[in-house]
């Protein structure tokens, strides 16, 4: 008798989310069996057939830095991720990079990534850290990609120790945006608030440097 797998087990083997599995069942992409209790079970032969058909994993490497003076770090990210993907047997179909804040949603590389996902041209996105893709809302992007059959592979779980400056720049960007909405972009109050925050950040950065020394 053929082994029938629970949806959770099937999702783990296929590397997809539960919502994607349900869509595949509706589209007839994968066959499912309905139990007497009204629950789906996936024949193992269906999973095996899909995995065998998927000969190679098509990968996109995505790297990002926040400013132009970090281009050496950008190249390090790309080189490391390329070697990482190759070692895992992935076929690197595209290398995307951005020099922009993680708060910027109009990044050229990021938008191109979404186009590739929509075109079902890739299977996995490889990044060094979660914040390389986005500073906030990583889970939303991860869920969107998952529904398209694409997973995100994060190489490192902990943020690098030298990320403080970038975090400060992003915080200033957020405050500048909110202050502009409250007081107006050309308001004197907005300018004073942003200058005050920058001064405070500079003082905190200096104290952190002294503490490390």
UniProtKB/TrEMBL annotation:
It comes from the Archaea. Residues 58-202 form the Resolvase/invertase-type recombinase catalytic domain. Pfam families: HTH_17 (PF12728), Resolvase (PF00239). SMART domains: Resolvase. One of its GO terms (molecular function) is DNA binding. CDD domains: HTH_MerR-trunc, SR_IS607_transposase_like. InterPro entries: HTH_17 (IPR041657), IS607_transposase-like (IPR041718), Recombinase/Transposase-rel (IPR051491), Recombinase_CS (IPR006118), Resolv_N (IPR006119), SinI_DNA-bd (IPR010093), Transpos_IS607 (IPR048046). PANTHER family: PTHR36172, RESOLVASE-RELATED. NCBIfam families: excise (TIGR01764), transpos_IS607 (NF033518). This is ISC1913 family transposase, first ORF. It comes from Saccharolobus shibatae.
């Amino acid at each position: 008798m053929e082994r029938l797998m629970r949806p959770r087990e099937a999702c783990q083997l296929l590397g997809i989310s539960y919502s994607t599995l349900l869509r595949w069942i509706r589209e007839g992409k994968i066959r499912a069996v309905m139990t007497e209790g009204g629950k789906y079970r996936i024949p193992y032969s269906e999973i095996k057939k899909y995995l065998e058909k998927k000969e190679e994993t098509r990968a996109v490497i995505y790297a990002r830095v926040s400013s132009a003076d970090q281009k050496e770090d950008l190249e390090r990210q790309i080189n490391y991720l390329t070697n990482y993907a190759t070692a895992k047997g992935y076929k690197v179909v595209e290398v995307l990079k951005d020099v922009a804040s993680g708060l910027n949603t109009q990044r050229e590389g990021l938008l191109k990534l979404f186009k590739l996902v929509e075109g079902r041209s890739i299977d996995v996105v490889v990044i060094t850290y979660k914040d390389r893709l986005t500073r906030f809302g990583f889970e939303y992007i991860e869920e969107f990609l998952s529904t398209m059959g694409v997973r995100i592979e994060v190489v490192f779980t902990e943020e690098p120790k030298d990320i403080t400056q970038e975090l400060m720049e992003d915080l200033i960007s957020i405050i500048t945006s909110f202050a502009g909405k409250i007081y107006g972009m050309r308001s004197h109050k907005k300018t004073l608030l942003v200058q005050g925050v920058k001064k405070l950040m500079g003082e905190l950065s200096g104290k952190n440097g002294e503490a490390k020394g």
